[in-house]
Amino acid sequence: MKTTSYKSLFILLFTILFVSGCQRISPVNPPMSATVLETMLPSAVDKIPMEAKVTRIHLSEPLDEPKAELSGLTWAGDWLILLPQYPDRFENQIYRLNHQIILDAVADPSMVLAPDPVIFNSDGLESKVAGFEGFEAITTNGTDAFLTIETHSAGSKGYLVKGIWEADYSQLTLDATSLTLIPTQMNISNSSYESVLVFGARIFTIYEANGANINAHPRAEMFDQALNSASSLSFPNIEYRITDVTQPDENGEFWAINYFYPGDLSKLNPADDVLAQTYGKGMTHANSPVVERLVAFQFSEDGIVFADKAPIQLQLLPDDVARNWEGLARLDQIGFLLSTDKFPETWLAFVAYP
User: What is the pLDDT of residue 155?
Assistant: First the structure.
């Protein structure tokens, strides 16, 4: 009985030693330090975000040509207003599309939409404003409209002007006496205020260049309904350009176009792209210097801040072709409508919410 017990014990010890020896021979990963563990967590380095598909909505003449230079979008009742930068190129007209026909075109992208003309009475501002370089942004609040103007007089300056809509939104008449100079933030060539929005009883304009290397303390300029300056709100540093915004929702959240054309590298001198570092780059953005994305902002007690949402990166065109997006509006709860300036051509497009 003792011999059998010793033999069984010997076999058991041999088995334990053999197995443990095999484990020592097999590759073993050492315990990770806290620093190494942090780098292994999901991050911009190892998580590739999805990019949003851009669905083009085809327009008929006269907005099917680059000279249209669409610079802003806004909703006016059931009409989407399309603002050319120079309405005098179109016999002093801007254009509109009905809400339902836009939904139809989103469902059937083969449709070609014919925009309706809207009479645009500028009250002679093209000749009254020194260095006039066109209308850059538009927003609507009831029957009131607010537009920004860019100039090249004594550096790039921006102006805010008020207009009144006809009840059926078939005509917009500007009031030249309301013309107000927007406080200048920076003197950057061909840069001014390409975004205007209304929140509560205040109108806000947002400068287009807010990068950390060129604009240390960006801000949104604030005006009352009579366009009297009413101080400003802080705005976060964000690289590249802000070229248009949506109207804020009831909670004060709005979206902005954040766009980078590589030809603006020396002018904008971008710092590190904090948003890309935080959220990562989509497949096409990781392989291109172009940036086309929508970024969410929020009104808060600390001014305007980033909303806690990932940017919506748009699928880029091949060969580093950049679409100069300059118009933005929400489309119900399903997504966004965007329009380009003349590069690479005139586009109206739909992008769905993620």
Answer: 65
